[in-house]
Specification:
- It is a single chain.
- With 132 residues, the protein is mainly beta.
- Helix content is 14%, strand content 47%.
- It is built from one helix and nine strands; from the N terminus they run αβββββββββ.
- It has a five-stranded mixed β-sheet with strand order 5-6-3-1-8, with no helix packed on it. A four-stranded mixed β-sheet has the order 2-9-7-4, with no helix packed on it.
- β5 and β6 form a beta hairpin.
């Protein structure tokens, strides 16, 4: 009975730790951007920091350009390179004070051609009132 309870406890711990882990599985084809959360809620005038990973399908070294975010004005993105293995960027997202309330969709991408091409990711920024 004691062995069974220890085994169940270990399985529970492993299950919990894997549910919080970032999905960095290799894509079947090409390279891809991965985020921990694809929907963020940010108040007007505030900022948030997240991590963005570029996951490569094969073991070759990538030659990548600068990351960028494309979408409407009002939400600003800054990218800082953090590590090479896996390729990680720190992303600072700041919502302007005058940004309209609601959902704003942005496409995150990293420049690269041929085997260096990276499939972009879509992130939804929900802007809420700073008074809430």
């Amino acid at each position: 009975m004691k062995k069974l309870s220890i085994t169940l406890m270990l399985l529970t711990i492993v299950g919990l730790s894997s549910s919080f882990a970032q999905n960095l599985t290799k894509p079947k084809k090409g390279n891809a951007i991965r985020l921990k959360e694809y929907t963020l809620t940010i108040k007007q005038g505030e900022e948030m920091n997240i991590d963005m990973w570029v996951v490569k399908a094969k073991k070759y070294k990538l030659n990548l350009g600068a990351p960028e975010a494309k979408g409407k004005d009002g939400v600003n993105f800054w990218f800082n390179s953090k590590s090479e293995n896996p390729i990680t960027y720190g992303v600072k997202i700041k919502v302007d004070q005058n940004t309209p309330l609601g959902d704003h969709m942005y496409i995150l991408k990293v420049d690269g051609n041929g085997r260096n091409a990276v499939k972009g990711a879509t992130i939804l920024v929900k802007v809420v009132s700073a008074e809430e």
